[in-house]
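Summary for the steering committee. One of the milestones for this cycle was to obtain a three-dimensional model of the protein with magnesium ion bound, which we needed before selecting residues for the alanine scan. The sequence and ligand used are listed below.
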Amino acid sequence: MFKGGIQATRDAAAALALMLKPGMVVSLVGELGAGKTTLVAALAAALHSDHPVSSPTFTVIHEVPTPTLMLCHIDAYRCSARDVLNLGLDDYQQDGFVLLVEWLEMFADAGPIPDITVTLTEDNNDPDVRTITITEHGDQA
Ligand SMILES: Nc1ncnc2c1ncn2[C@@H]1O[C@H](COP(=O)(O)OP(=O)(O)O)[C@@H](O)[C@H]1O
Ligand SMILES: [Mg+2]
């Protein structure tokens, strides 16, 4: 568990970076403004990417190359289940991208099964503090 200001987000991203393998699916769970996109930016930085990370709210998918792993950042907030199915996420997975998905939990049936869930919660007292947990799910085959 990581708790604190932006450094806690950076620490969580660095820990997540060590867990990732090609084709993995990461579900990023948290309210609007919890810091999901900020965590993806911190992850890209931890992986030494100089690619800018911004919210894919309107474009839905952003590819984020890093020297070691290809990341695919998805914001499904405005998607229907059909949209999610039509994104071709399994193709990205087969191509070895790591999928980092905001709002995947809204699509239990349509979306890919997460290998890792990252949960971000805000603090009632300090607007800059987040509590971040990283859960790796067992083999679901
Ligand atoms: N510790 C922190 N970790 C992440 N973001 C933080 C933190 N403290 C403040 N913030 C701010 O909270 C906002 C999070 O926004 P964003 O990452 O877009 O959230 P989401 O993608 O979950 O909607 C940003 O404006 C960011 O600067
Ligand atoms: Mg976001």
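Key point for the committee: The mean pLDDT is 94.
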